[in-house]
Design brief:
The chain is an all-alpha fold. It has one domain: Sodium/glucose cotransporter. The chain has 21 helices and four strands. The protein has a two-stranded antiparallel ribbon with strand order 1-2. The protein has a two-stranded antiparallel sheet with strand order 3-4. Strand 3 and strand 4 form a beta hairpin.
């Protein structure tokens, strides 16, 4: 065994032991622990957990690679994902927390007083979370596959076993504190390499300030190699695709059920707002670093790999070729590897960069541990969302209202194990890159939950027929566009599958408004509850339009 393998494996095993130990120590013993961590998580730690829940394999593994390959056009991911948190924190999270339910489908079912709406919302949650989890398990396969130098599919199944264990055992309580540990590990693992690369290339330890100089040099390298300039806008898609993708990711963020449920784990509306503020800070540390990571990685590849004799490539290339994520081919037969002959999957850029930049075995192992933390933290939250949608919203609230607490916990745990295995099987041959798969999940959330929650909180006239029709139309339009764009080559204004959420959201919003206006208004009691959601918790609605302190 080489030193790199031993160090990487040791770091991953130590972090795995930490996660499993936390899950066992914080075992869920009642349903409030399993679904909302007993509503006792302090805002700063909830912000860390939200950050870990949010910074998935797509953010940690895929985003810098996507920006490296797309250049300017990749910034839609950063602006969309970050901007969505502002929408969620100001427009939805405090109000949903005040309503005091366990899940998004439960809010929709009770807000619109409809079991049908509840079941449709639960099904949408399962579809969205399942799609998202495929990307996370695919990411864990990339990491473990490279570490053990085996096919990424073997690594995926190892990740399935770990996630199924600690998510089913600890529930939301265990996952919350596991995610705090995972955030600390993943952010350290992300920042250290980019800081070292900045020192190595620019002699400045602050990559956020130094990478602008490298961008200028990349422009010159691009011109020399005859490729489209890194910072030229809309070279990989139309401006409409850029805007559609940004909207899809923003609205999808505000409608993601596994992220929204994190705001249910705090005690008050104020704590929910502070959780969002802390989360933005913790997320910003990674998102502000991703463009620097991308620029440094592209610069090193262009300078040290492209243009080299193909029989004298660095040793790291062989290891990545074995995973199936890197291809090198001397297509023109000149014995030199051209930039156009280097086919590097965006999913491996972050993982490979410490090797590309020769940062040492400890940094390589640290990045592997951080990538696993990112994939596992989000996957755990997704499995809880799937479990709560079936076990709580469908099984308990609709099928078996008299089910005992122990029976509900058992069904929840069985659901997690089943969903993890099924997602893992799909992830063995993923239908797209990690960021692409994740973008589909956001498109589905923006086409179903974002319009339903936005109008459910801010428009008291929205009713059950409207939201039922809206979710079904939004889901149908979004799925249809994704399949038509990916497999049929159909596009509108150059908007491809990752921007499908804009069509689903508009269709759902119009459907909810039109159907609600043409059908009976909600009861006066529900309308008063909706208005009450918008005000601080010490306020109470009374006599139609008079507000008094409780």
């Amino acid at each position: 065994m080489d030193t790199q393998f031993i160090v990487s494996l040791s770091l991953i095993l130590v972090t795995f032991a930490i996660y499993i130990g936390i899950a066992i120590f914080n075992k869920a013993r009642q349903t409030s622990d399993f679904y909302v961590a007993g509503r006792g998580v302090p805002p700063v730690f909830n912000g860390m957990a939200i950050g870990a829940d949010w910074m998935s394999a797509a953010s940690f593994i895929g985003m810098a690679g996507t920006i490296m390959l797309l250049g300017y056009d990749g910034l839609a991911y950063i602006m969309g994902w970050t901007g969505g948190y502002l929408l969620l924190t100001f427009l939805l999270a405090p109000q949903l927390r005040k309503y005091g339910r366990y899940t998004v489908p439960e809010f929709i079912g009770d807000r619109f007083d409809s079991h049908t709406a509840r079941v449709i919302a639960a099904i949408c949650t399962i579809i969205i979370s399942f799609t998202y989890s495929i990307g996370q398990l695919s990411g864990s396969g990339v990491v473990i596959g490279r570490l053990l130098e085996v096919d990424a599919r073997v690594g995926t199944m190892i990740g399935v076993v770990l996630i199924a264990f600690y998510a089913a055992f600890g529930g939301m309580k265990g996952i919350t504190w596991t995610q705090v540990a995972q955030y600390i590990i993943l952010i350290i693992a992300y920042l250290i390499p980019v800081i070292f690369m900045s020192l190595q290339i620019t002699s400045n330890p602050l990559p956020w300030l130094s990478y602008g100089n490298i961008i200028s040099e990349l422009g010159e390298l691009d011109r020399q190699l005859g490729v489209s300039e890194y910072f030229a806008p809309f070279t990989n898609g139309t401006k409409w695709q850029f805007l559609a993708l940004m909207f899809t990711l923003m609205a999808g963020t505000a409608g993601l059920p596994h992220v929204i449920v994190r705001f249910y784990t705090v005690s008050t509306m104020k704590a929910a707002r502070w959780s969002g503020a802390w989360a933005l800070l913790f997320i910003g540390l990674l998102y502000l670093s991703a463009p620097a990571y991308a620029a440094f990685s592209r610069f090193i590849l262009m300078k040290n790999v492209a243009g080299q004799p193909i029989d004298q490539l660095p040793a790291w290339t062989e290891s990545w070729v074995n995973t199936g994520k890197l291809q090198v081919a001397d297509t023109n037969g000149d014995g030199i590897l051209q930039w156009s002959e280097l086919m590097i999957a965006n999913d491996i850029v972050v993982m490979a960069t410490p090797e590309i930049a020769n940062l040492g075995v400890f940094i390589i192992g640290l990045v592997a541990a951080g990538a696993m933390a990112a994939a596992l933290s989000t996957a755990g939250g997704l499995m809880i969302a799937i479990s709560s949608s079936f076990a709580h919203d469908i099984y308990y609230r609709v099928m078996r209202p008299n089910a005992t607490e122990s029976n509900r916990l058992l069904v929840g745990r069985i659901t997690i194990v089943t969903a993890t295995i099924l997602a893992g099987l799909v992830a063995l041959n993923p239908p797209g890159a990690i960021t692409q798969i994740v973008a589909w999940a956001f498109a589905l959330a923006s086409g179903t939950f974002f319009p339903s929650l936005l109008l459910g909180v801010w428009w008291k006239r929205a009713n059950a027929p409207g939201v039922i029709a809206g979710m079904l139309v939004g889901l149908t339009v979004t799925l249809s566009y994704i399949f038509a764009a990916k497999y049929g080559g159909f596009t509108v204004l150059g908007i491809i599958d990752t921007g499908a959420g804009v069509f689903g959201a508009v269709a759902a919003m119009l459907t909810i408004i039109i159907v609600s206006l043409r059908t009976k208004a909600p009861s006066q009691k529900i309308q008063e509850e909706v208005v009450d959601l918008r005000y601080p918790e010490q306020m109470s609605y009374k006599d139609g339009d008079v507000w008094l302190d409780k």
